[in-house]
Amino acid sequence: NLSNNKMFLLDKSNFEKRFDPQFYLNRVIIKNSIKLSKLVEIKGGKRLPKGKYYASEITNYRYFRVSNMKEFGLIDWNNLEYISEDIYTFLERYKIEKGDVLISIAGTVGKIAFIENDVENIILTENCAKLIIKDKTKLLQEVETFYKERIEDYKSKNVNNLAAKYYKRQFEIA
To answer: Which of 12, 67, 118, 137 lies most in the core, judged by the most C-beta atoms within 10 Å?
Structure first.
């Protein structure tokens, strides 16, 4: 039965793709693209548990925040907050590791940092996501090279060169 009060009766399960028209307006189609999820695993960070706070003294466990991400991918390692061992143990699955790409997703959205060295006992804030490169033999070297070139351009104050590389670089995926 059709109701006079309804224009359409649709079952969304009959649609395989997105049904919101705004998604398809002015859509840029990129040829030879690949889904990011085929290259990386995307994971979130975590906030401190309710009622828990940063440690008041130096510990072996730290907490990475968006404020630790500086311009052009630089990281302020000196201002990570310290956390207790019990908080670290509770949040351990949110730790960052060498090779992770971090992206801020709240606050100042879009900051990016690459963890190029071994790090220990650092938990990622819920305001960031981390991209874990699946096949490090194919992509990690490209990301490392790109990151190091950006830092060198920044240190030499070659900002024009930096912007050009940042927006034009394409990663080869063999």
So the answer is: 67
In the block, which residue shows the tokens 């006079």?
A: 4
Q: What pLDDT sits at residue 172? A: 45
Neighbouring C-alpha atoms within 13 Å toward the C-beta of 174: 6
For residue 66, the tally of other CB atoms under 10 A from its CB is 20
Residues in the chain: 174
Q: What angle do CA 136, 138, 143 make, to 5 degrees?
A: 75
Query: Closest Cα to residue 66, out of 104, 100, 95, 119?
Result: 104
Which strand (E) or helix (H) includes residue 129?
strand 128-133
Identity of residue 93: R
HEC states along 78-127?
Answer: HHCEEECHHHHHHHHHHECCCCCEEEECCCCCCCEEECCCCCCCEEECCC
Task: Provide φ and ψ at 42, rounded to 5°.
Answer: -105, 125
pTM over 0.70: no
Burial bucket for residue 113 (CB in 10 Å: 0-12, 13-18, 19+): buried
Give the pairing of strands 101-104 and 112-114.
Answer: antiparallel
Per residue in 12-63, pLDDT (tens digit) is 565 666 666 776 676 777 777 777 788 888 999 999 999 999 999 999 999 9
